[in-house]
Design goal:
Blueprint: H1 5-14, H2 76-79, H3 83-91, E1 108-109, E2 116-120, H4 125-130, H5 136-148, E3 160-164, H6 178-195, E4 199-203, H7 205-212, H8 218-221, E5 226-228, E6 231-236, H9 239-244, H10 249-262
Parallel strand pairs: 2-3, 2-4, 4-6
Antiparallel strand pairs: 1-3, 5-6
Helix pairs in contact: 1-5
């Protein structure tokens, strides 16, 4: 796959090192006519070897299909909400039911339509303090990752929208409870109905396991295309993890390439 100069610059900022583009070598001129080789008489035919019956083929087990996550029904309280009403319901906690989160974040990026829907784990303490997802270096890395894949989270014409699976951070950073995950996915389902994305990118283990419906570690969920509510779903690492483990940036780039190849035309 070839990349233009802009994409190469963005990949360099993300820490990827692509090989230099190949240098075209001019083709050598066609050789002149070659003298015909002398005709040699063929050897005498050998006696045919005895024919043995073919061995019975060994059946190859079929690969197990990857199950799609069961879609969560959009509650009646969310089904009729437009974007402004959904945002208000998420921010004041009405979309989360009995959640105990102190504050809620809705997301940022392309509205009212998005080509990519990027779903993250729950907001961090820094996100909560800033009132915005992916602040500081993690946010800048996420924007460079998305931009290298041809999408934009910011600027004059953003094409991707990033939102947390669970809109708020639980007290003392405890893991989200089952009813909070259910409410968060229901809110996400209504958001997807409104934004009409062509692809969902789940970053982080919580979002990956919830949207795929599989309990596997994130490393085993990567490298294949899942499905969520009829949309192609690709899983990758969270930017905060990549900042701690830069050696895995190459794997994250492979995930983004898979997402590009999986997006419907």
């Amino acid at each position: 796959m070839s990349w233009d100069s802009r994409q190469r610059a963005m990949l360099a900022e993300m820490g990827f090192r692509l090989p230099a583009p190949p240098v075209e070598v001019p083709a050598e001129p066609a050789p002149g006519p070659v003298a015909a080789a002398p005709v040699v008489a063929p050897p005498a035919p050998l006696a045919p070897a005895p024919v043995r019956p073919p061995a019975a083929p060994v059946p190859t087990p079929a690969a197990a299909p990857v199950p799609a996550a069961a879609p969560s029904a959009v509650p009646a309280a969310l089904a009729g909400l437009d974007l402004d009403a959904l945002r208000a319901a998420v921010l004041d906690g009405r979309a989360c039911g009995a959640c105990e989160h102190r504050s809620h974040l809705f997301g940022r990026g392309a509205l009212p339509r998005a080509d990519w829907l990027v779903v993250t784990d729950a907001p961090t303490e820094a996100d909560e303090a800033a009132g915005q997802l992916f602040v500081a270096e993690a946010g800048r890395l996420l924007e460079r990752m998305v931009l290298a894949a041809g999408q934009r989270l910011a600027g004059d014409a953003p094409t991707a929208f990033v939102t947390p699976l669970v809109p708020g951070r639980a007290p003392r950073g405890r893991p989200p409870q089952a009813h909070e995950l259910e409410a968060g996915e229901a809110q996400l389902a209504r958001l997807a109905e409104l934004l009409q994305p062509r692809l969902v990118l789940a970053i982080g283990p919580l979002a990956a396991r919830r949207l795929t419906g599989l309990p596997d570690p994130l490393g085993r969920l990567r490298g294949r295309v899942h499905a969520w509510r009829g949309l192609p779903l690709v899983v990758t690492y969270a930017p905060s993890y990549l900042l701690r483990s830069p050696a895995d940036k190459a794997g994250a780039w492979d995930d983004l390439r898979l997402a590009l190849a999986s997006r419907p035309a």
